[in-house]
Amino acid sequence: MNRTAVRAAIHVAAIFAMYLSAAMLIPAATDLYYGNKDWRVFAFSALFMGGLAAAVALATQGSPPQATTRFGFLLVNLLWLTLAIAGAVPFFASSLELSIADAFFESVSGITTTGSTVINGLDKAPPGLLLWRSLLTFIGGLGVIALGLFLLPFLNIGGVSYFKIESSDIEDRPFERFHTFAVSLIGIYTALVVICAVCYAAAGMRGFDAINHAMSTLATGGMSTHDTSFARYAGTPSILWIASLFMFIGGLPFSIMILFVVRGRTDALRDPQIRVFAGYCIVFAVSVAIYLRVKLGMPFFEALTHSTFNFMSIITTTGFASDDYTRWGPFAVACLFVATFLGGCSGSTTGGIKAYRFLVLFELMGNGLRRLIYPNTVQPVRYGDRTIDEDMQRSVVLFMAAFFVLWAIATILLSATGLDLMTSMTGALTALTNVGPGMGEIIGPVGNFATLPDVAKWILSAAMLLGRLEILAVFVVFTPTFWGR
Q: 445, 323 in Cβ contact below 8 A?
């Protein structure tokens, strides 16, 4: 990695920070409209970040470097770190008087679409700050989709973008039609947010809440404008079903939506990961609904509503909650714990392990078992009716290994800060999978992360970023090989 590439990556990150500083004027205008004095916070933050970013951009001007894999890795990490730091400035300067650790945690939770929070009293928080949290999830969700569709598949560390496995012209020239696909992505994503907001408002949600929750729902970010999250709407089943539907849409591969809009490709719906994703959503939701009806005597429709909503929220790594599901009984809690690992589809806004990795992993296991009986057979690893190449197989195995090792390390580190095992274990898991709430009295669905030590918040912030960038994209930057010639 040469200095020219590092300078160019910093230059691109600075340009990005300038755009982000301009976005701070939206919550500034919101606070000004509602007569809240925190509009000055966002105006100052926009001026400060914009000026700093402009100075860095001017200082790092130069000829662009050659587009290489190393440059791609460095740029991805710098962009997300820049977004996290810039997003934290308004939180730190706000009237909530958050510490640096709290402000950074809240920003990282937003951009990684995790949904964990350290803020108490959301119902009385400045409206501009609430909107900023939602905007960060909106931007983060869009960035996550772009990461999964355009970058990770071509860096050979994950993703089953249909741009790569379905279309040879895109595979050979991945960025030739980048502008077309990028415009389609932004258009579809924004249109879905608008439709979701309209549906929320029609179902009885206040306009401001509808806009914020819509951004957070499509981004599967889980940032609510209320301390009680969707428990506030527990008596309005239509709102919970609307949220469940749009969380499910957020968990679908946006590559298919883009292919449908740009090329009219309905055959892309045969993607096997969609069937797996929908399958485990239905199985978990219905099974626990029956359990709640039999065990707790809850009316079946009510049980199905809450079960569907909360499982959709956990599986898609959104993090909303309509009830304290840790009190539903051991079977339900065990199912919710397992659901924390799952995630949606590749190229969606969700985190977690994701459905396509399970497909590849079980295919590898099946082939391994068959070779125990027939050692000399050579069978390809298949994804539906397609053969998975060795790069994809290796990336899945590497990710799974890195995920569980990192989970163990994060759990131990959190325990060292004085947290109990349940909080440490589920906190590390929910950060890596970008789910949001953990389990237990402290960080469960009715709690938050405010009382955790600052050291624990830094650890969780790092884990959220690692999970969002698929772990390997971060690890590779810290290897000696990456910086060698």
A: yes
